[in-house]
Amino acid sequence: KSGKATRQELKGSWAGAMGQTQFLPENYLKLGQDGDGDGHVNIWTSDSDALASAANLLKSEGWRPGQAWAVEVTLPADFDYYLAETESQTPNWWAQKGVVRADGGNWNASEKTAPAVLILPSGAKGPAFLALPNHFVIRKYNNSTAYALAVGLNADGIAGRSALKTPWPDEQPLSLAVRKNVQTALNAAGFNAGTVDGVIGIGTRKALREWQKANGRVADGYLSYELASELSAKATGYTILGPSGR
Hints:
Blueprint: H1 25-31, H2 47-60, E1 70-74, E2 88-89, H3 91-96, E3 100-101, H4 109-112, E4 116-119, E5 128-131, H5 133-141, H6 145-158, H7 176-188, H8 202-214, H9 225-236
Antiparallel strand pairs: 1-3, 1-5, 2-4, 4-5
């Protein structure tokens, strides 16, 4: 009715997300940009419009030009992994804990005063990152750590930055049933993992971190295959037998 898009263009997912940007109609109206200058915001087939609209979303959520989204770091042998996802501090504060950039580089003036959160997407055995505010801006687009990492690491690759120093560990997947069993076991032990839905999100990681700390484990908040087997057995009486997690 407004003339911003034709009925034929209005194609989206079952939830209403449309175009390359997967904007909901509200965001299309609010954030859509005419990147190719043809007078029409076409997020379906115009790459320029889609990219300009996505950039406008990031800008509106507080993207900080000149700052990294995250930087890989290395941790000292005696590091307190409980600090991951629980502290938001400047890079200098983290440096006092022995956290250093893996690339040997320096923080710029803007980054030195920015709050940074340590994230361990694969636990203590995988790469570690200090996530700067731009990481969380990406998560305003899609609130998933894995999504933000994929976007950021691909962007770094396109920009010609070096590969990660610490490789991703080779791990076996966990079934939905096992993940639910873990949440059930944590809740039963008094560590609030929230709704038993099999989604290992912030709440479950927090509960797991508290359980690890209380049981003298490395409190990295990461659900490894071995730990999942142990906790699942507490809920069911059975251990995981194979790589399928059953």
